Structure formats: C-alpha cells, structure tokens
Amino acid sequence: MVSSMKKALALTGAAAMLLSMAACGGDNAGDDSGVKEITFQTWNLKNDKYTPYFEGLIAAYEEEHPDVKINWADQPSDGYEDKLSTQAASGELPDIVDGGASILYGLAKAGALMNLSAEVPDAEGDYYEGAWAGATMTGNGIEEGAYGFPWYVNDGPTYWNTELMQQCGLDPNAVPTTWDEYFAAGETIAKNCDGIYLATTMGSNTEDYVTAGATWMNDDHSAYTFNDEAGVKQLQNFIDLYNEGGIPPEALDSSWSQQSDFFQRGSLVAMAGSAYSADGFKQNSPDLYEKLTVGPRITNDGKSASVSYELLGISSQSKYPDVAIDFARFVTNAENQVEFAKQAAVFPSAQGGLEDEYYQNIDTSTLEGKALQITLDQVKNGYSSRPAEFTDANGYKYLQQQVALAMQGEQTAQEALDKTVEYANERLAR
After folding, report:
1. Which residue ranges does the chain devote to CATH 3.40.190.10?
2. pLDDT at 31 (0 to 100)
3. With bands split at pLDDT 50, 70 and 90, how would you rate the model's confidence at 34?
4. Any idea what the Cα angle at residue 115 is, between residues 113 and 118, rounded to 5°?
5. Structure pTM?
6. CATH class for domain 2-153+307-359?
7. CATH fold of 158-305+383-428, please?
8. Which residue, among 53, 152, 140, 139, has the nearest Cα to 100 in the 3D structure?
9. Which residues are CB-neighbours of 337 under 8 A, at least 6 positions away?
C-alpha cells in the first residue's frame, strides 16, 4: 500500500507548467532566490488515518519543487468557520484553505479569496462540470467566478427496507425514483402500517424543492425565488404526508439525530445514506442488511441535487500565489484525488477521476456494488442545489423552522416559504 501510494503521489503535475507569473499577479510572487514557504490548512484531517497521505503528498511536491516549503496546518471542526473569519480579519489567512462552498462564501465576499476563474481560467477544464459549478459564486458583492479548486465530493443512494415495503403494500422490486412515486409510496405505507414511516425527509433541504421543479434563485443570484408554484406544491405534499402519518413527529426537531436508529430498528422504510453505508449495515446490522435494496436519490430530472463539494480556496493576500495555486492543483488532480478517495470514502471531482481503474468492474450483484455504482453516476452527473450564500445563518436554519411550523398546521406552505424567502433575501442584500 505504501509503495502504491508513493507511486500515485510522485507526480510532477503537467498543469504546473501552464502557470505563469502573469496569471498569478506578477510581482506578488516574491523573491525566487529563496525558499517559497506557504501554509496549507485543512480541517479535521490531521489524524492517524490521513496524516501519512498528506505527509507523502507534501513530500512528493517538495521533492519536485526544492525551492518550496509546504507547512500543513489542521484545525478542529468545531468553530472552524469562525477561525477562518478571525484569520482573514487579522491578515493571517493561510495561503490555501479547505472548506465547503458555504464556508468559503463569506471569505470570498470579503475579498479574502482569489477568483480562480479570472486568475487561472484554464483550470475549469480540469474538473467535472458540476464540481466547477459548485465552486462558482456570484451575487451581491462578489465578482462571478470559482473561489476554490474542487476537491473531494460526496453523495449517496437511498436505502430501502424491502421487508417493510412488502409488509406495507409496496413492490420491493420497484423502488420510487420520482417525487410522485415517493409520495404515493408514503400514502400507501401510512394506510397499511401503523407506526412505520416512509422517511424523515420533509422539505427542509434545497434539493427537496429543486428536484421537484422549483427555482431556488434567479439567474444573477440577486433574489431567492423558491416560494414559486412548484416550491409551494412540494412543501404541501410533505405536509400532507406528515398529516397522513408518513413522517415521524420527531423529525420536526432540527436537532433530532436518531434517523439511523429508526431505520435500523424497522421504523423507517427508506433512508438516504452514503455509498459506503451498505458496508456499515453489513457489519453492524446484518439482519437489516439482508433486507435492503438501493435506489437513486429522489428527483424528477434524474440528476442528484444533493452532491456536496469540498474546495481549496487561495488567499488573495498570499505572498506566493503561483505556488499556492500550483500546489492546490496538485492536491486536486485526478491521481491524487483518487488516492485520497480510496482512504476517505469520498469521490474525486477532477476529470478522469471517476473513470479510474479503481472504479471499474464493480460487482453490482451486491448491495455495496449497487450503492457504489449509483453514487458514481450521481456525483459525475449531479450538482449541488444549495447556493453558497444560503448558509445556516442566512436562511437554511430558518427554512427548517418554518417548515416545522407548517407541518404542525400553524401556517400554510405558502406562508412558510414566503417568510423564508423574505428572511433570506434581506440577508442576501447586506
């Protein structure tokens, strides 16, 4: 394993040859006569599992670039976004920072990150279309462009308990794939099985609306628009499902975290999971494992909208932007992403990564193989429906609250989405 890892990491990266001083701010590159020292900051990745990978990655790059020194810093998950804000405000933002789009959004809006679409326009072709789109930001106060190199990606299938499906009047060989099929299944379950629920999904995530035809934002990201006819209809469908008994009351509490327990003890028919949840079920719940099948995420257009992307942003104040850009592209090239994906149970965002030999010849006769193949298709062709600016504070948590109130009959679907759109638009304009 060690030798194969070294082989995968010992890459010079032809993309490095494409970079120039002009593409990175010219004179800002610093004195070439000395060692160029930069900081690469991740979060929650310096541990026994991943440290050897990153140390090997850095060593391989430094061997090919003897005039470069890479300092790897890692921050805990708790308070990471606040940490980044503090670093940026004090002028101490690391040259390369790891984060999801919603985390990097505030830095981009504050001018703390480079617009990579402008600085390195050729980079777009190195990544899958959905991944580059997930890194692209626009709207009030932000020059449109990608503010991070796409790194690893995640998504997963929907797991279905075939025993419960049959018990509650559903065909276990025909799992729902569209929203009409999904809500019809929920109605059937509620009619035939007391105390058994379809799932905990209830209209509190962006993908619940976008995949049903709602338009989340206008084209220039100047306003939220998901209180349109399609959005209201979708929320009303969830309200009806809840009233019929297809969604457990516990799900209305945004802090509730027992979904997996409900599923494993036979109270839920379906649950969204990762590609690698199947192996977890096999190890920890073998009886349940034998009853499971998988299907894609529920969507009307056949594309998953729940793909999540991790990004590597570049500080606009980096002393050596050429080095920072080059190393970030090295970390996120297809070969190095695949090697990381093997260890981290994630997927590559770089072109060619999903076609790597590692993902070929999948045995789809097993639950694990079916889950993996579905997820591969989703991350390659899917997208993130949650705009970077729709952060927890700027609308996401508020949406959850308003949906819960609508579920309890305290307001209509239209009122819930109207309030959320108004709340989010007020913060968008700031």
Report:
1. 2-153+307-359, 158-305+383-428
2. 52
3. confident
4. 155
5. 0.89
6. alpha beta
7. D-Maltodextrin-Binding Protein; domain 2 (3.40.190)
8. 152
9. 151, 152, 348, 349, 350, 353
